[in-house]
Amino acid sequence: MVYLSRIYTKTGDQGDTGLGDGSRVSKDDVRVSAYGDVDELNAVIGLLAIDAAVRDGPAEQHGLLRGIQNDLFDVGADLTTPGKGKGPGGARLTVTAAQVTWLEREIDRLNGELAPLRSFILPGGFAAAAYLHLARTICRRAERLIAELKDRPGETVTPEVLQYVNRLSDYLFVAARCANDKGARDVLWQPGRNR
Q1: Are 27 and 16 within 8 A, CB to CB?
Q2: Euclidean distance between the first and final Cα of the chain, in Å?
């Protein structure tokens, strides 16, 4: 359980930070950057969860976004613990295959309400859709950093972390189309339009 009695500790004043296993790394370490991008993604999803179109839309959408925010804390907790070791107190929180499967079911459910794409789409339409596209691009950035971390010698990433983040970007894309009046307000790419 988390217990914070002080918000500042001064332990990072020299540019390093503690990981979940107690080790310290530079704040520009790729692992720190990866879970930092996950945190940024979570903040944008928080904005989405208070957007009127989502808040006043189907209750399930608001609940799904709050569930995803919780899962993103799990992703961050998993990323903050390098190797296969256990975190403080002997426990290590990891992302599970069930969380990935849940996202896949949600993608399939939402995508079933949409007509197939016949063109690439541009981020835009309604505000909620634009924010979902913003979240998707941040998610893809986090995914690239997680993949880079996984490929570094001596580093490990729980496979489900990469799977979850990959599925989440797909979910955000499909959710953006749904937020655009089930695709009717999608902004279509017109190749070479301004030549």
Answers
A1: yes
A2: 58
Contact 54, 47 (CB under 8 A): no
Residue-wise pLDDT tens digits, 2-16: 666 666 666 556 677
CB neighbours (10 Å) of residue 175?
27
More confident residue, 90 or 175: 175
Task: At 82, list the tokens.
Answer: 């390098």
- pTM for the model: 0.87
Which backbone phi and psi does 187 adopt, to 5 degrees? Answer: -95, 115
CB 124 within 8 A of CB 179: no
H helix and E strand count, the chain: 6, 4
